[in-house]
């Protein structure tokens, strides 16, 4: 300041060059500039105390300042995907490409689906030229991953696009092998061989209610002419169930409404009307067309919904019905040494109310079904465990704990919002085992009983 005054003093004495008022203005301006410089230096020090996150791309450098108390960092680049600091998706709206056109008219172009569990939505498209926008490529079965659109998918920090193959048919009737390992996600009815989780025929919310609610038709009002009903159209099943039923019909009355071994009219061969027929009978035959690990379909679902007792076929875990039902809630044909022994036991049970209702023991409880229906799945499971026991296989290693009961794509969205993309990318996919391993052999049901009969004859 002294330096400035020393050099300005001669100018003050020279009226011809500067007026006194002009000098005062210059001094005030200098003081103001010095103040601004000092203020900006303090502001810069304050900013340096904050955490600085820098995200870069080819054309820009974006600096984002956040307080130290922030726990979730959003990293989002223009035109690209949003993830948090761990690589988990933060998107709220997703696009799913239906590659094989399996989902039908109900999920046609532009159809929007709400995902309640993650508070998100996704839209269906079949336009492969939208591949740059797509989050998921969904394929029914597992076609070979070559060329478009799979070669255009990106899975990195900038963009996370995933492929998923799913199947609801058994290994006998669908593809198997290494191709399944090429997809990011694999979903099927198999409770343990799906990633990230299975896609089954069951809505666990509904299944729990159907198991706990009382039968709509009491024991005394069941059909008096036949105790068993069967409604099937496929009369060429891989496990030869039709040959088994043909022999069982010789031992006990069975009403068959389907086109296979038909002897009654009135109900269609598909599941639309089956529930109305099922509930009138004491037993419902719910045997699948092939015996494979965890292959349990709507046949059991509808049998349970009817309130009648299912007759099933499960051996060597193909399938294990304890994963889907409470103990002592079904008749397993493989528990019998002959078809006649099975028929005799069914007759005995059908004529004894107490014995029959012992297979429905879990329907006797103090739970309010109406109130139970309003609860979340987790809350339902707690109430259900109170009834059948927390150690029941269905609870500890079965459908109740593994099926989250929501749309397949919604399951994926929930998963990518909870799991870093790096972890998904590093996941080692597995092949889908073939039917020789997953399923019982061709003709397994009738072969089983024929072999028992042959052994019995030889022993005699």
UniProtKB/TrEMBL annotation:
The chain crosses the membrane at residues 20-37. Keywords: Glycoprotein, Glycosyltransferase, Golgi apparatus, Membrane, Signal-anchor, Transferase, Transmembrane, Transmembrane helix. It is found in: Endomembrane system; Golgi apparatus, Golgi stack membrane. Residues 224-368 form the Fucosyltransferase C-terminal domain. InterPro entries: Glyco_tran_10_C, Glyco_trans_10, GT10-like_C_sf. Its EC number is 2.4.1.-. It comes from Rotaria magnacalcarata. It comes from the Eukaryota. Pathway: Protein modification; protein glycosylation. Belongs to the glycosyltransferase 10 family. It is a single-pass type II membrane protein. SUPFAM superfamilies: UDP-Glycosyltransferase/glycogen phosphorylase. The keyword Transmembrane helix applies. It is an enzyme of class 2 (transferase). One of its GO terms (molecular function) is alpha-(1->3)-fucosyltransferase activity. One of its GO terms (cellular component) is Golgi cisterna membrane. The keyword Transmembrane helix applies. This is Fucosyltransferase.
